[in-house]
Amino acid sequence: MGSVHQAGPRSIGAAMFPTGLILCAILYWPVNPLIFQGAALILALSDGLAGLIGRRFGRRAYAITGPKTIEGSLAFFIITTFILSLFILDNPNINLLHFLAIIIAALLITLAEGISGKGWDNLPVALLGGLSIYILKLAF
């Protein structure tokens, strides 16, 4: 939780991280525990590593509701795309439409992360991550 607390005194990330996970557990665990686990992976890995990569390698900053970097957001997108891809591997009929849906979902989650600052991003990232996995599993 160190990276959550490093976000600064004006960040509520430490409160939104477990809140996002709890809401995902309530919404998605009864449907399929894998949906909750995927949302938790996106929140922990994509968001956590994006912050680390953004702080270490970020050169191009932007701020909508809080400081972010293009490099961190790109890392978030790539990691989220990989995590979402794991949820269609059990489908023997994978096609281009599956990957297009994953790219669109990863872009939407990345956009939500990019426009939400000061720790608020933990809530939409978790909820949209779970929703994306739910739709991918339902549709495909």
Task: Report what the structure shows.
This protein is mainly α. The protein has six helices and two strands. The protein has a two-stranded antiparallel sheet with strand order 1-2. Helix 2 (13-28) runs parallel beside helix 6. The protein is globular, with a radius of gyration of 15 Å.
Write the layout of secondary structure elements.
Layout lengths: L1 H4 L7 H16 L4 H25 L3 E3 L3 E3 H17 L9 H20 L6 H18 L1
Antiparallel strand pairs: 1-2
Helix pairs in contact: 2-3, 2-6, 3-4, 3-6, 4-5, 5-6
Low-confidence stretches: none
- Following the backbone from N to C, one meets helices and strands in this order, namely HHHEEHHH
Indicate the percent of residues in helices. Answer: over 70%
Strand order of the largest sheet: 1-2
In a few lines, what is going on in this structure?
By secondary structure, the chain is mainly alpha-helical. It is built from six helices and two strands. The radius of gyration is 15 Å and the shape is globular.
Descriptive key words:
6 helices; 2 strands; single chain; 140 residues; two-stranded antiparallel ribbon; 71% helix; mainly alpha
